[in-house]
Amino acid sequence: MFRSLRRTAAAAVLALAAALLPSGAIAQPEKADAAYDVLVFSRTTGFRHDSIPAGIDALRSLGSANDFSVTATEDPAAFTPANLTGYEAVVFLNTTGDVLNDVQQNALQAHIDAGRGFVGVHAAADTEYGWGYYGDLVGARFKSHPAIQQARLLTEDRGHPATAHLGESWTRTDEWYNYQANPRSSVHVLQSLDESSYSGGEMGDHPITWCHAQGSGRSFYTGLGHTAESYADPAFRALLLGGLRYASGVAPANCSTSSSTTRTVEGEAYSSGSGVQIAGHAPASGGQTLGYIDNGDWAGYATVPTAGAARFSARVSSAGAGGAIDIRSGSATGPVLGSVTVPVTGGWETFTTVSTDVNAGTGPLYLTFRGGAGALFDVDTFTVAYGTTPRALASDVHLFYYPWYGSPAVLGSWRHWQQGGRTPPEDIGANLYPALGPYDSGDFTTAVARHMEWVKRSGAGVIVYSWWGRDSYEDRLVRGVLDAAAAQGVKVAWHLEPYANRTAASTVADINYLNTTYGSHPAFYRDAAHGNKNAFYVFESLRITDWSPLDQVTGNSIVLAQTTDTTKIAHFSGMYTYDGIAGATAPGWKQAGDYAKAHGLIWAPSVAPGYNDDRAVPGNTTPTLARDNGAAYDRQWSNALDPQIGGSPTWVSVTSFNEWHEGSVIEPADSTPPSGHGYETYNGAYGRTGTDAETAYLDRTALWVGRFTWVGG
């Protein structure tokens, strides 16, 4: 939220930090991993890949840069209990055939099950067919492959260190294995292949990279890595490094597994519908699509159940307006199980895949379509996955959310975007430009619905709604935002802002009003770990000295003060910080966290990707915090999660999802903003460029959410 008052305090923090840091010191994005050792095994008794030397060189290079040692061998005598003890992880690099005898197999099995890690690369799945344990360890066994060719991979989990650097999809050339059985029911899938993007896929649902627990140890496998060129590809090397870090135990990740089945359906095979027709397109499956889709049209599939449904994906194309698909149960007006946005792909025969987690329903599946004027998009095929348990959104990660924007198209005039004397739509009061353009917070079906999809993608389970009093603009938008949040399984907590004449007594009345008015809504946040209490953050709580009236509501509500000064939190339930700059040095965080833990209070430090309000406040000379291609965000998260710095938070709050004036957003920013205004972009964040960089901070949030959740929040 835009407040110049905070900048003065931030300046003092940065000045102190500058005085304490040595001259020329550069903050690293994360703490270095503890040193560890990796054994790379590449013995072959079947086909031998000529890429093995390149793979060994790549792993050695990664080790030199990331403080792990690599011992490469093809001697199975290395597999003794005494020797394996020295290695945190064992890599099977394009091994083939029967490479270990029974004694050596027993040594490896005991090593992994005792808590060490395994990494299998490509032909590791073409190894040890007679050893049952190994089949479980690697996850799937090789069946066949077509010729080397380009294909598109879909990233299913961006919270894992192996895939955190990737976008929704990744197109590359390799040799694509088919496996004897689909491993999805026994592994945690990180990437899958879009079989429509290449020739020779035989699996339909086609996992290609995955991880899972093995005994007390960890297993990571990728089917990539046939070609020597792969090992010079920075993105593939990053995938290998992330897999190694997970397997070695230095980078925690969610690799939980669950049983699932999938069903793929031709879009044009609908049993009932309104407005839709069959369209012919040669690249489509069967040469046809569900087409001529306009806003409000729908299609029903009487033989496709929603009971047990957990994930929906669709192959779509659009040379029209794009839009969204709502997945419903029972009828075209039945409960919405999930929603997914369909982008403009540039042509009716240019297809892409969109996907989303869904809730289980009770009746047959219906798809309803919404968007702008004219033709929206076509649907080639869609797939429903059943029986999986989607990774739960993190109820202990909260994103500050601002519903204060307006536009002439919805509100009738600009609101907030003109901050700093700007003239929207191209000239706005922000140093970054939204990927959605200057939207209206009352545009629930497009902008707000997309926001909630993005929140879900980040892994955070709660938004903290900026609320400025009863009958305010923001109050009038609450129900629409709650409805959009509920469609994605996102919950809503409250940021009580310092509106005119706010008092402790009026704050108590506000809490009662919000509970009474909105408390029955399914998206209204209640913290299960703290007696199902709802949550309220009080911004600038230090403006008021006597908060004793809060005693009337803290029996059933969590109320947080914005401070780390533990002498200023009487009558509150805990503390948060909000400040988008202070997280770089975390002043007072450990003391606040330790105090909260000792007194049974909530500690919710705030982390931010950066801070820059220069376009919103022309002529500003107070500090900013550069994003540094993501390093600033990583440093703040790292500080928050380090007990010696961050004080073991109960929750982590993120400043912010969409406070555009202050440049603290993780909401996607346009990679090609209007020229002539000096806008920044996310280009270069975490090595991502162009449109792929637009979602870099959402995906990085998912990585940190996974780490916070994995270590127990």
Automatic annotation (TrEMBL):
Broad EC category: hydrolase
Single GO MF descriptor: carbohydrate binding
Location in or out of the cell: Golgi apparatus membrane
SUPFAM superfamilies: Class I glutamine amidotransferase-like, Galactose-binding domain-like
Pfam families, per the entry: CBM_6, Glyco_hydro_99, ThuA
Entry EC no(s): 3.2.1.130
Main location: Golgi
Domain of life: Bacteria
SMART domains membership: CBD_IV
Annotated ranges, domain CBM6: 263-385
Membrane topology type: Single-pass type II membrane protein
Keyword terms of this UniProt record: Glycosidase, Golgi apparatus, Hydrolase, Membrane, Signal, Signal-anchor, Transmembrane, Transmembrane helix
Signal sequence segment: 1-27
Keyword DNA damage: no
Protein name: Glycoprotein endo-alpha-1,2-mannosidase
Organism: Streptomyces davaonensis (strain DSM 101723 / JCM 4913 / KCC S-0913 / 768)
